[in-house]
Design goal:
eight-stranded antiparallel beta barrel, two-stranded antiparallel ribbon, Porin, mainly beta, 1 helix, elongated, 193 residues
Length: 193
């Protein structure tokens, strides 16, 4: 993790100075779906993903972004019997997973004058907190899966419909130490300044 932070601190000034005034900044917000990888595999619980990114193009084909995503899922677990209270209940597991990191984007094809198709590769940190919703009087501990690192990759399109505004459909896979991996498929609004 220290290497990842050091790499980020060393690379970001290089990206900033390489672009000067020729390339604008991009700010985006997105929302969509996500599938979390867990003990059952990579098509486990699905939920809503939302987040944002901030970055800058530094050549005609390469750009750099910092991004963050929050995912919330909810799933019904098998019924249980609490021997202490004598209650039979069906718990609901709520997961809140966060992915954040940096990504390099490579434009692989132009679409018109301004829009493009891209592939992405970067580093990511992940964190998850789990809560079980149970009846009052039944004990259910919270669970935190800590902070773990990994890589992310994906593909998408930057579709600019004006000088400053565009949309971005995107797929991203976050490969993080088990069981914090997952994939997101989002669409967002981009602003260029």
């Amino acid at each position: 993790m220290k290497r990842l932070i050091l790499l980020l601190v060393l690379l970001f000034p290089v990206v900033l100075s390489a672009a000067e005034a020729q390339y604008p900044w991009d700010l985006s917000g997105f929302v969509g779906g996500a599938s979390l990888c867990d003990e059952a595999g990579c098509f486990g619980p699905s939920g809503i993903a939302f987040g944002g990114s901030f970055g800058r193009q530094f050549t005609d084909r390469w750009s750099f972004e910092l991004d963050g995503v929050a995912v919330r899922t909810s799933e019904i677990l098998p019924g249980r019997f609490d021997t202490f209270t004598g209650i039979f209940y069906i718990p609901e597991l709520q997961r809140k997973r966060f992915w954040g990191g940096f990504t390099f984007l490579l434009s692989v094809a132009k679409i018109g004058d301004k829009s493009n198709l891209f592939v992405a590769l970067g580093a990511v940190l992940a964190y998850e907190h789990q809560d079980q919703l149970v009846p009052e009087g039944v004990f259910a501990p919270d669970k935190t899966l800590g902070l773990k690192g990994g890589v992310s990759g994906g593909a998408g399109m930057n579709l600019w419909f004006s000088e400053n505004w565009g949309i971005r459909p995107e797929f991203r896979f976050h490969g993080v130490a088990s069981p914090l991996s997952g994939m997101r498929y989002t669409g967002g609004l981009m602003y260029r300044f």
